[in-house]
Amino acid sequence: MLEPDAALNLVLEAAQAARRADNTETVAVDHSLAGRVLADDVCALSEFPPSPVSMMDGYAVRAPPEGARMASSDEGVIFRVVSSSRAGAAAAGARTVEAGEAAYITTGAPLPPGCDAVVRIEDTLGHKTDAAGLETCFSVPAAVAASIRPGLAVRPAGCDIQVGDLLAAAGTPLRPEDVGSLAMAEIPSVAVTRRPVVGVLSTGDEVAARGAGGREAGGGSATAIGDANRPMLLAAARAAGAVALDLGVVADSRPEVKAALAAAARRCDVLVSTGGVSMGTTTS
Ligand SMILES: Nc1nc2c(c(=O)[nH]1)N[C@H]1C(S)=C(S)[C@@H](COP(=O)(O)OP(=O)(O)OC[C@H]3O[C@@H](n4cnc5c(N)ncnc54)[C@H](O)[C@@H]3O)O[C@H]1N2
Ligand code: MOO
């Protein structure tokens, strides 16, 4: 009799040896990847975000050089609005923003050229518009102006993902967050190992008596029992990421069991049979 660990090792070694050349398939990056196992490490080919983006709704500006003070009046420090950058929209009037100028910006939008900081809208006051209703300028209190540093409320390019970062490793089942990382890095599809087909076969006259004709057919027999192993093992196979193949129930007949095993071997990568393993006259 084999100890369980030794038996498991035998099965795993046989499974390794049986790995087929066509062991991988290409799958699009979507929710169907959950639990699938990558064939290779997947690394980022591009950085994310691809350019600096705003963390706030407000105004993109150029931070003054360190130690420099911006000209302030009673109204505070005034900025001229020269362009805008909205998440998802092409940059409008994307000329370089100079010192003392600003571009209206929404959360997630790329910083226009010349800008390196964002002032939150709620930290601004004194907004003015032209005759057409377009914003021309706004001001910020001197204390807010003094707090403007390069990088304020900005997510730098590549802060989430850098080129070459390992997004997900080969050999481990993909988690939801791995799928998110792959999608974020705009990886269109990945190579995953084929899901093994695990067939489950129950044996036993008493199980077959109920199983063959359904519950009603066998239900009258005092000796028939419901098949508990097969649904449990099929569920376990599926939960482990396999394709579960239901092979039904076979009675305790050597030729029938032999035929069922031979047929099953052609359809499965792994075949699990239960019953008929002891020392009685119907076990083999
Ligand atoms: N002036 C202020 N601006 C912001 C404040 C604030 O207090 N004052 N709060 C910030 C906080 S906190 C949050 S949260 C955001 C919420 O703004 P939005 O609802 O406009 O932002 P989202 O649509 O969630 O976008 C944020 C970020 O995520 C990116 N995004 C959005 N959807 C997806 C998606 N399906 N897949 C990938 N990435 C996505 C989006 O492009 C942005 O970069 O407001 C702050 N602003
Ligand atoms: O509201 Mo935001 O979700 O704090 O980042």
From TrEMBL:
Pathway: Cofactor biosynthesis; molybdopterin biosynthesis. GO terms for molecular function: ATP binding; metal ion binding; molybdopterin adenylyltransferase activity; molybdopterin molybdotransferase activity. Residues 5-184 form the MoeA N-terminal and linker domain. The keyword Metal-binding applies. Transmembrane segments: none annotated. Residues 199-280 form the MoaB/Mog domain. It is an enzyme of class 2 (transferase). Its cofactor is Mg(2+). Pfam families: MoCF_biosynth (PF00994), MoeA_N (PF03453). Coiled coil: none annotated. InterPro entries: MoaB/Mog-like_dom_sf (IPR036425), MoaB/Mog_dom (IPR001453), MoeA-like (IPR038987), MoeA_linker/N (IPR005110), MoeA_linker/N_sf (IPR036135). It catalyses: adenylyl-molybdopterin + molybdate = Mo-molybdopterin + AMP + H(+); molybdopterin + ATP + H(+) = adenylyl-molybdopterin + diphosphate. GO terms for biological process: Mo-molybdopterin cofactor biosynthetic process. It comes from the Eukaryota. This is molybdopterin adenylyltransferase.
